[in-house]
C-alpha cells in the first residue's frame, strides 16, 4: 500500500513537470519589427526636383533633398511597459533619394504584443560624443555616401536636411533654400548649445503588433514635409531661406517633431 502511494506520487510529479514544461512561456523568444517610412507632401508623394508644392504661407517650392535621422527606438507593450532597443544598433538615416533607406528592421525584440513606439529625430548626445570607433555605418562622419550629414566645424550631426528651390528665395542664392537642423545641447567653444533633439511618440491607434519568432509585423509611417513649415511656427521661405546652427532652428525642430505619423500596420 505504501509503495503504491509512493509510485502514485511520483507519477503525478512527473505528469505535472511535463505539463509545466509544455505550458512554460519561452522568455528568450525574440522577433523583429519592420518600419516603413513614406515621405510625403500633404496628400502627395514626395518627388525630388519635379513637383511644385505650396506651404502654409502660400509659398511655392520644390524639394531637391530630404534626409533625417531616426534613433533610440522604444516599443510600448500592451501592459504599459516599454522595451528599449539596444542603443548601439539603433540609428537610421532616411534619405528620399535612396528608397532602400526608407525601410528597416528592428531586431531581437522580446516576443509580445506592442501597441506603440517612441523614437528620436536626431542623434543623441551620448552617441554624438562617443569615440569614432563607436560611430559606424550611417553615423560615420567621413562616409560621403551619407550626404554629409555631419558638421565638421561643429562636431555634430545634422538631424534633418531639407533643401529646394522657391521663387521667393533670394535671387542672390539662385532661389535656393536650405534647412540644416542639428544641435544636441552639448558644449561648443565652452558654451552650452542648442538642443534640437525631438522625441516622437506613435500610437498604433488601437492596433497591435504581434512580435514572435515566426512573425514579422510591419508598421507603416508617413513623414510630411509640410510639417517642417508649419506647427508651433509658420516657417516662411521669404523670411528664413537658410537656417542652420542658430536660435531660430529650434522653431523648425518643434515643427518637425510632428512630421512623422502612424498610417497602419500588418502582422505577417
Q: What this model shows, in words?
A:
- By secondary structure, this protein is mostly beta strands.
- Helices cover 14% and strands 40% of the residues.
- The strands form three sheets. Strands 3, 4, 5, 6, 8, 9, 10, 11, 14, 15 and 17 form an eleven-stranded mixed beta sheet that branches. Strands 1, 2, 7, 16 and 18 form a five-stranded mixed beta sheet that branches. It has a two-stranded antiparallel sheet with strand order 12-13.
Give the structure's gist in a few sentences.
The chain contains 4 helices and 18 strands.
Can you lay out the helices and strands and say which pair or pack?
Layout: H1 2-23, E1 30-41, E2 44-45, E3 53-54, E4 60-77, E5 82-84, E6 91-95, E7 103-110, E8 112-121, H2 125-128, E9 150-151, E10 156-165, E11 176-182, E12 187-188, E13 191-192, E14 198-203, E15 209-211, E16 218-224, H3 226-229, E17 242-243, H4 249-256, E18 260-266
Parallel strand pairs: 1-16, 11-17
Antiparallel strand pairs: 1-2, 1-7, 3-4, 4-5, 4-6, 4-8, 4-10, 8-14, 8-15, 9-10, 10-11, 12-13, 16-18
Amino acid at each position: 500500500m505504501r509503495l503504491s502511494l509512493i509510485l502514485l506520487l511520483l507519477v503525478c510529479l512527473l505528469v505535472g513537470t511535463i505539463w509545466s514544461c509544455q505550458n512554460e512561456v519561452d522568455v528568450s523568444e525574440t522577433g523583429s519589427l519592420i518600419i516603413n517610412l513614406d515621405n510625403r507632401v500633404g496628400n502627395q508623394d514626395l518627388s525630388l526636383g519635379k513637383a511644385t508644392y505650396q506651404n502654409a504661407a502660400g509659398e511655392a517650392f520644390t524639394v531637391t533633398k530630404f534626409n533625417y535621422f531616426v534613433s533610440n527606438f522604444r516599443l510600448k507593450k500592451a501592459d504599459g511597459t516599454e522595451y528599449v532597443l539596444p542603443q548601439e544598433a539603433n540609428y537610421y538615416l532616411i534619405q528620399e533619394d535612396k528608397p532602400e533607406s526608407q525601410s528597416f528592421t528592428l531586431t531581437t525584440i522580446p516576443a509580445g504584443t506592442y501597441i506603440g513606439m517612441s523614437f528620436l529625430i536626431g542623434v543623441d548626445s551620448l552617441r554624438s560624443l562617443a569615440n569614432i570607433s563607436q560611430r559606424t555605418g550611417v553615423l560615420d562622419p567621413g562616409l560621403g555616401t551619407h550626404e554629409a550629414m555631419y558638421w565638421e566645424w561643429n562636431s555634430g550631426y545634422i538631424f534633418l536636411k531639407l533643401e529646394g528651390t522657391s521663387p521667393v528665395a533670394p535671387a542672390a542664392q539662385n532661389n535656393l533654400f536650405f534647412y540644416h537642423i542639428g544641435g544636441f545641447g552639448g558644449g561648443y567653444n565652452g558654451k552650452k548649445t542648442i538642443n534640437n533633439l525631438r522625441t516622437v511618440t506613435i500610437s498604433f491607434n488601437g492596433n497591435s503588433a504581434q512580435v514572435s519568432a515566426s512573425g514579422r509585423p510591419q508598421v507603416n509611417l508617413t513623414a510630411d514635409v509640410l510639417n517642417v513649415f508649419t506647427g508651433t511656427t509658420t516657417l516662411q521661405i521669404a523670411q528664413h531661406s537658410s537656417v542652420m546652427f542658430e536660435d531660430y532652428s529650434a522653431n523648425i525642430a518643434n515643427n518637425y517633431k510632428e512630421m512623422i505619423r502612424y498610417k497602419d500596420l500588418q502582422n505577417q
